[in-house]
């Protein structure tokens, strides 16, 4: 179990402060981000042709501690019911009722501190996200989803890159609004991701011997990452069944992240005049950082996420070029239409399977327009 209160306390205590701005400047940033999220929604809906919400709420704007609290709320919605199932699956421990309570209480606080430390690190890096499981619904129905932007991080990056502030803010909004379009315009996508996540967590191997092996693998992953290798904790602690599920999850997340990256750049030239400068400098920032920062990124799988952006964007660009936006949008027809890991790397395989031979025989007019 995880002590969520400890996670919030640890995260908000450890997180670094954001850039120093006056109260008036902060209010201006918040107001503009809300305005630009609404503007970006219209651009994304028109460009992608996706049937997303017609008039969604503006983005929720948070600071770094607010992002930590929001993520803990989202984790609780998803993980608490699963933790109960996993506890039942595990059964009584060797120490008996009272002993198990003590061990669980200590363990949950330690885990809460670990989660808080990870969130503190991430809270200074994330620019925005579409939160599938927020706001928590007290009526028991599915959460409606929420678009969140982390204002101090956006201001920090635009200052660091020395780019036009309004252009950068709209550019970020285009990416995040694409995620809102995906999860509100594709009826089955939210449930698919949630089900795969649930299966992944429930597939944890609770056998003590297997857990010891996972701990050893995690320790070796840390050592490898420190040496500059490619190991990460996510791969190290998985069971064989989880690896299979994670392949499906990684494929769909590579698609949605790559789609967001493609749209923010493809829409950009008309509405974000400095988009090429922003992309060039932002890409350099993604690839930079000191040795310790790179080690942490490898351990937490952040570098893997950066590869997802690139692979997914290449897939979307290739399909749109050869099949047009309407051909690409067949990807949202059903879970069976999603590309596999191999198909993302080799888009022609997906086009042959889902779009048909027209995708490789001719370039439709709409591809030239895109």
Automatic annotation (TrEMBL):
<dbReference type="GO" id="GO:0008237">
    <property type="term" value="F:metallopeptidase activity"/>
</dbReference>
<keyword id="KW-0482">Metalloprotease</keyword>
<dbReference type="Pfam" id="PF10103">
    <property type="entry name" value="Zincin_2"/>
</dbReference>
<dbReference type="InterPro" id="IPR018766">
    <property type="entry name" value="Zinicin_2"/>
</dbReference>
<protein>
    <submittedName>
        <fullName>Zinc-dependent metalloprotease</fullName>
    </submittedName>
</protein>
<keyword id="KW-0378">Hydrolase</keyword>
<dbReference type="InterPro" id="IPR022454">
    <property type="entry name" value="CHP03883_F420-assoc"/>
</dbReference>
<keyword id="KW-0645">Protease</keyword>
<dbReference type="InterPro" id="IPR042271">
    <property type="entry name" value="Zinicin_2_N"/>
</dbReference>
């Amino acid at each position: 179990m995880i002590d969520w209160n400890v996670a919030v306390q640890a995260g908000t205590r450890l997180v670094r402060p954001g850039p120093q701005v006056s109260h008036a400047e902060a209010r201006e940033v918040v107001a503009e981000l809300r305005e630009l999220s609404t503007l970006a929604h219209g651009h994304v809906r028109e460009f992608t042709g996706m049937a997303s919400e017609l008039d969604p709420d503006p983005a929720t704007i948070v600071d770094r501690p607010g992002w930590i609290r929001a993520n803990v709320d989202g984790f609780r919605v998803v993980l608490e019911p699963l933790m109960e199932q996993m506890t039942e699956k595990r059964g009584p421990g060797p120490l008996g009722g009272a002993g198990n309570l003590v061990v669980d209480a200590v363990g949950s606080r330690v885990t809460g501190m670990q989660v808080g430390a990870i969130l503190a690190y991430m809270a200074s890096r994330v620019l925005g996200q579409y939160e599938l499981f927020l706001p928590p619904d007290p009526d028991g129905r599915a959460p409606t989803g929420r678009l969140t932007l982390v204002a101090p991080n956006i201001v920090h990056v635009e200052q660091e890159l020395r780019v036009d502030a309004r252009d950068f803010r709209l550019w970020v909004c285009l990416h995040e609004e694409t995620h809102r379009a995906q999860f509100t315009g594709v009826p089955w996508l939210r449930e698919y991701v949630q089900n795969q996540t649930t299966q992944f967590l429930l597939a944890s191997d609770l056998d003590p011997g297997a857990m010891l092996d996972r701990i050893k693998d995690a320790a070796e992953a840390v050592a490898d990452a420190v040496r500059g290798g490619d190991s990460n904790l996510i791969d190290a602690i998985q069971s064989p069944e989880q690896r299979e599920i994670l392949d499906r999850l990684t494929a769909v997340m590579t698609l949605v992240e790559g789609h967001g990256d493609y749209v923010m750049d493809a829409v950009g030239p008309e509405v974000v005049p400095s988009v090429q400068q922003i992309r060039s400098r932002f890409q350099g920032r993604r690839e930079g950082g000191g040795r310790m920062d790179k080690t942490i990124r490898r351990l937490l799988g952040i570098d893997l996420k950066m590869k997802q952006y690139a692979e997914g964007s290449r897939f979307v660009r290739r399909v749109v070029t050869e099949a047009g936006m309407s051909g690409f949008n067949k990807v949202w027809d059903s879970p069976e239409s999603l590309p596999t890991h191999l198909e993302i790397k080799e888009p022609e395989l997906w086009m042959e399977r889902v779009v048909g031979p027209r995708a490789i025989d001719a370039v439709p007019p709409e591809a030239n327009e895109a």
